[in-house]
Amino acid sequence: MSRLPPMPDEWINRAHSLKFCFEGHDYVAFEGDAISSALWAAGVKTLGRSFKYHRPRGILSMANHDVNVMVQDGQRHNVRGDVIPVRAGMDLTAVNTWGGVQNDRARFLDKLSGFLPVGFYYKAFHSKRWFPMWERMFRTITGLGNLDLSTPHIRTAKRYDYCDVLIIGAGPSGLSAALAAADAGAQVVLVDENARAGGSGMYQLGADNARRDRTHALLNAVRQHANIRLLESTLAAAWYADQWVPLIDAEKMVKLRAKATVVAGGAYEQPTVFRNNDLPGVMLGSAMQRLIYRYAVHPARRVVISAANDDGYRLALDLLQAGVQVQALADLRDNIPASAVVEAVRQRGVECLLRTAVYEAHADDRGELGAVTLCKVRNGVADTAGAWRLDCDGVAMSTGWAPAANLLYQSGTKMRFDERTQQFVPASLPEGVFACGRVNGVYDFDARIADGARAGSNAAAFALGIAVNTPNVPADESRPSHPWPVIEHPQAKNFVDFDEDLQVKDFANAAQEGYDNIELLKRYSTVGMGPSQGKHSNMTALRILARLLDKSPEQVGTTTARPFFHPVPMSHLAGRGFHPQRRSPLHGRHAALGAVFMPAGVWERPEYYAQPNKSRTDCIHDEVRRVRNQVALIDVGTLGKIEVRGPQAAEFLNRVYTARIDLLKVGGTRYAIMCDESGVVTDEGVIAHLEQNVYYFTTTTSGAANVYREMSRLNAEWGLQCGIINLTGAYASVNLAGPESRNVLAPLTDVDLSSAAFPYLAVRQGKIAGIDVRIMRVGFVGEWGYEIHVPAEYGATLWDALMDAGKAFGIGPFGVEAQRLLRLEKGHLIVSQDTDGLTHPFEVSMEWAVKMDKPFFIGQRSLKIVREMPLKRKLAGFKLAASHSGAVPTECHLIIHQSEIAGRVTSCNWSPNLGYHIGLAFLPPDMCEPGTRFQIRLSDGSMVSADVCATPFFDPENLRQKESA
């Protein structure tokens, strides 16, 4: 191929060339070139391989309506070559190949296609013995693109916008609609997925510059209109309720809400179906026109046109004007209505063959198009008796269209099948939704402009609540689509869906299997389920099914259109990575002490405190030893902190928690768990009875917001006389733990800290360093300790006072990892780490925390049922041999017993106080007896032996929390 002389309105900048690489070879493109156009101009025609049979593929639509040209660009995978512009330095490879696009080792699958019919995977490869091997094989040979796990996170912006009228599609009808709506006073947003507006009015010309001139005039008026914002390279990806439309461009997603929407998205040209219609060189007629007018590229030297409408004749004129030899124009129709464009083609000496089809395309020695076989067609059936062969390097298919109606379907538009246009058109539109142009069944150029003005005027009238004069739309008698553009062949390879390598016979086989409903056919055959979402295949598939069932297309119906109908990058859906992050009032103190922070829910917490010349593990173990042997301080201000007040506060908490809160005396605390209606453990914490009818309690860090929200909902439902106050952000809290904790605290407080006055699990209110505090004697880490809660503004003052008072006792901070190890030594569980979405209290030995004699609590009914059922698993402690070295089990490593999965590890760590690894795991009840040995499978497949042991692992008599300790 080669470049044409400069074309009016071409998209390329010839003054700026770019170098890039494709499949290891260097090429030169112009700025503005798409990947496909640059390669085609360089004479490269085989640009990809098909998904299933690995057949060579070239350009089909040149418009993002197919994935024949899909490439990998470094860490960017599945880049669509038809629409993505070339960048300098690109290093591109075709996806879905083994050994490159020219020497794809998987091309042998094409020879095996007879053994791989549609749905073959449902009937084979399902034996339990062989399935793992087949699964690995299929996962290896399928998939598009290679994921690079080192790819950095891409953050994209999300914006919000509003307008009176949104118009989707900036072709002739969309431009006309925008001007009509704006002239009526509406604020208009006009979007088009293409790099430049104008649509078919800039390339489907039929060598008639008047069309382009008129489109230019509309476009210039749009650009100059104060009420119109034109957004090019912007995709309206979906339609949601109340005119909510996401607009996608290269950088961001804009969530736009309009009062009215006009869909002017046009139509997708459909491939003609004949044998080998997927060879490189066979493409849609509109693709050739895009190559000519947008990129100034010769689509081919000698072309055969398969036509069934006037668009095919306009294409012939465009090709002739570009210097392309039109070998023949094979028209499927029985008669050709007289028109100026048909007469113009005949006057140029093109052989126009009536009732003639391309029966088969033939490959040359490179696997690309080299010739075609033409034959007569009678009553939709090929007559091969007089077939003849014609050399060519290009076939243009121009036999019909399918409306780009996805957004209309999503909006709730009711469609009907129109026999004249052979497409589905709107029968009734939802309020505030309008359609114009080809998607509305209007194909004549003048009629499309008028139809756009009508839709724009009506949309403005709806949005603004005004009356407008609606222009008349001239009658359009054009017949743009052939009812049966399918040429059957005994050797098949006549493709309907290029994404999925689906042939005509595949649909017959599917219907014969009983999948004769359009939705079932879609799922069994996967038609329309590829990256193109059926843009080039759904209409033909529908026609084939209709003929197989002897029904009309309207009786067969269409599949459900769901967002998104165009590919949208995952980064756009993820958005800007907005993640609320909270810091405790003591964050600055932790940073000054060398804290290494970690996320904990929405909070940043100190994971550990770094020390010079020490590893992370050594630092954590030092913190653990300090807690066990001296005294240490941890910030627990991230815990949820909620207060319930009122005469029915106890009744409310009694219903929410499984414990008997109504029996809790003032000055006491109680550990309690919360369940959902199915009896699953959802949260836990300590409840303190501060005063009569005043309860203060903590929740897990990650569960605070959910617990408060659920409690608020429940109280609104129950109507009890109590108020719920979320104090999570209003209070700071610390835990002072270790054998010396009482000695550190005593000089600072007016609270009597003696064991008799302040026993374990008691709560007291008083002062520390002159600050009003709430102190709870609790021991999550298994040491004598005090959990101290103060108003957030005094948190730093409290921290400083405790650290100063503890200097003589060797005080230091400890972080989350040390806390987790300390609690593991005591066998204490962490909700959502040692439990999951199915864990009930009896599985984690918390029968003592569930008071079934209460009249009611959430989950009680389910727990009564569960209690009578045998346990399937139980949380148990385990240890590894003290001599163990090497890899260590981590969370979710599986426990294997008699070659079957028996359970999983929930926690595991090395204890510096015990000198060996300890952990918790879910096991079958018959394996929970101390001393039972079991095997844990690590990530690399190796096995580690472990022994069940009783918990707590450390200080099983809890002597360290008693006065005599």
Describe the structure.
With 965 residues, the protein is α+β, with helices and mostly antiparallel strands. It has seven domains: 147 residues, 2Fe-2S iron-sulphur cluster binding domain, sarcosine oxidase, alpha subunit, N-terminal domain (Ubiquitin-like (UB roll)); 174 residues, 3-Layer(bba) Sandwich (FAD/NAD(P)-binding domain); 129 residues, FAD/NAD(P)-binding domain, CATH 3.50.50; 82 residues, Arc Repressor Mutant, subunit A (Orthogonal Bundle); 164 residues, Probable tRNA modification gtpase trme, domain 1 (Gyrase A, domain 2, 2-Layer Sandwich); 115 residues, Alpha-Beta Plaits (2-Layer Sandwich), CATH 3.30.70.1400; 96 residues, Aminomethyltransferase beta-barrel domains (Elongation Factor Tu (Ef-tu), domain 3). 23% of the residues lie in helices and 28% in strands. The protein has 23 helices and 48 strands. Strand 19 and strand 20 form a beta hairpin. The radius of gyration is 36 Å and the shape is elongated. The protein starts with 12 loop residues before the first strand and ends in a 16-residue tail after the last strand. 50% of the residues are buried. The mean pLDDT is 93.
What would you report as the Rg, rounded to the nearest angstrom? 36 Å
Overall mean confidence score, pLDDT:
93
Unreliable spans: none
**Given the helix and strand composition, which structural class is it?**
alpha+beta
**Number of DSSP E strands:** 48
Name given to the CATH homologous superfamily of the largest domain: FAD/NAD(P)-binding domain
Characterize the biggest β-sheet. 7 strands, mixed
How much of the residues is beta strand, in percent? 25-35%
The total domain count is 7
Give the terminus-to-terminus CA distance.
Answer: 90 Å
Just give the CATH class of the largest domain: Alpha Beta
Task: Write down the overall geometry.
Answer: elongated
How many helical elements?
23
Work out the helicity level. 10-25%
Secondary-structure arrangement, i.e. CATH architecture of the largest domain? 3-Layer(bba) Sandwich
CATH topology of the largest domain: FAD/NAD(P)-binding domain
